[in-house]
Amino acid sequence: MSAYAIADSATMLRRDLRHSVRNPMMTISGILTPVTFMLLFAGVFGRALGASLGGAASGDYINYVTPGVMLMAVGSCCAATAIKVCVDMQTGIIDRFRTMAISRSSVLVGQVVGSLIRTLGTVVVITLIAVALGFRPSAGTVEWLAALGVVAMLALALTCLAVSFGLATRTPAGANSLSLIPMLLPLVSSTFLPTASMPPGVRWFAEHQPFTAIIETLRGLLLGGSIGTNAMVAVAWCVAIAAVGFGWARWLYGRTRPSVAGG
Description:
With 263 residues, the chain is mainly α. The chain has eleven helices and no strands.
């Protein structure tokens, strides 16, 4: 990327972050959704579910569930990105950017990097809340850095997909609906219970969908469990999602023609 494109991308990033400061409700919503799931499952059902995992108290269960909820937070933040991109398309500002002497990819890069920053901040908040509720990871410095890399890798992949959702839909409601896919997919994974406890058909799906391998990798890093081949599968899924998402976004951005009335 040239210095010209980097400068344009930085400008678009500042615009994206300023919009987040002026309209904080979508960011707050991205935090509240995973917090609600954490309070519900760890606080209300934690003792019963912890016992089913061989633990005696809800504190055992919150150690199990927190890595999955951290990744749910990543999926939850996608909705805000998709809605923001869709609103930009509908208000005509993207059409104006196309007529300006700026790098075409800078608009997408600014959205992706801005969303990545917000998502990582949300995951930090979720982690602090989990610690307050009893989450006690055994990870050292290296494991924490690796865990941060896993979260950032998934956040980047899902952000690229969210930008595509925003470009592909005509209304914010449509963008939000598509964003429910990465937000709710962790519900059918190993987030709340091991896949071995699920019925055969559901178990097969849970074991082969993207989130389970990523969750097990993060859980192994934070809690000292076995990771096995999950890390390689997690990287492969994230790379594939990011490639599809960014490629789709660039294609949609390039083919969409400016509107006659500027929006």
